[in-house]
Amino acid sequence: MKLPHNSKIEKIVIAILLLNKKIILDVMYILHTNYFYNLKNKLLYKSIKKIYLKYKKVEILTLIDYLNVNNKIDFLGGKKYIIKIINKIVDSSYLKHYINILKKKYILRELIKMSNSIIKDSYKDDIEILTYLYTIEKKIFSLLKNNQEKNFYSIKEILNKIENKIILNKTCNKGILSGFKQLDAITNG
């Protein structure tokens, strides 16, 4: 039985990133590499991230060249795999929904792996049960903590908020007035 995954959505997310390069930085903060189950798709996403971090620009030809230089293009079955992905008709307005699906599938895979490990270890006679329960609890809380919902803000939104705060702070008088105009002008009081 295969672990939970959705290769079709993985490909759609990659297509969206390759066709809408401006959102790559925003997506990198919420889409972890491990959310990809398909090794080919995981390799493509890792490569997109590396190229973006190094050059700030990801083009299809740059991606193919990067994969060639790193001897990974054959693993994908050639550049045809990438071309098939980008030829898909995709709607980027569903990107957050797609990422949430990949995240859910990843969490389910991790829970299955943990459960299998728990079952296997439960047959051991020499296990310290309270310590083991604590270890299980830590693993589950770690999975929860690392995959909590993060707000999805674009860099533009964040910069606008920062700019508004700076403008607001310039117009606000932060000091305490002393009653002496010249001193207040010097000290912002």
Automatic annotation (TrEMBL):
Record's keyword annotation contains Hydrolase: yes
Q: Name one Pfam family in it.
A: DnaB
Q: Where is the DNA helicase DnaB-like N-terminal domain?
A: 3-103
Q: Oxidoreductase as a keyword?
A: no
Q: Provide the GO MF annotations for this entry.
A: ATP binding; DNA binding; DNA helicase activity
GO terms in the biological process aspect are: DNA replication, synthesis of primer
Q: Which InterPro entries match?
A: DNA_heli_DnaB-like_N_sf (IPR036185), DNA_helicase_DnaB-like_N (IPR007693), DNA_helicase_N/primase_C (IPR016136)
Q: What keywords does the record list, in alphabetical order?
A: ATP-binding, DNA replication, DNA-binding, Helicase, Hydrolase, Nucleotide-binding, Primosome
Listed under GO cellular component are: cytosol; primosome complex
Highest taxon above the source species = Bacteria
> What sections of the protein cross the membrane?
none
SUPFAM superfamilies documented for this protein: N-terminal domain of DnaB helicase
User: Any coiled-coil ranges, and where?
Assistant: none
> What protein name applies here?
DnaB-like helicase N-terminal domain-containing protein
Q: Which organism is it from?
A: Candidatus Shikimatogenerans sp. Tser
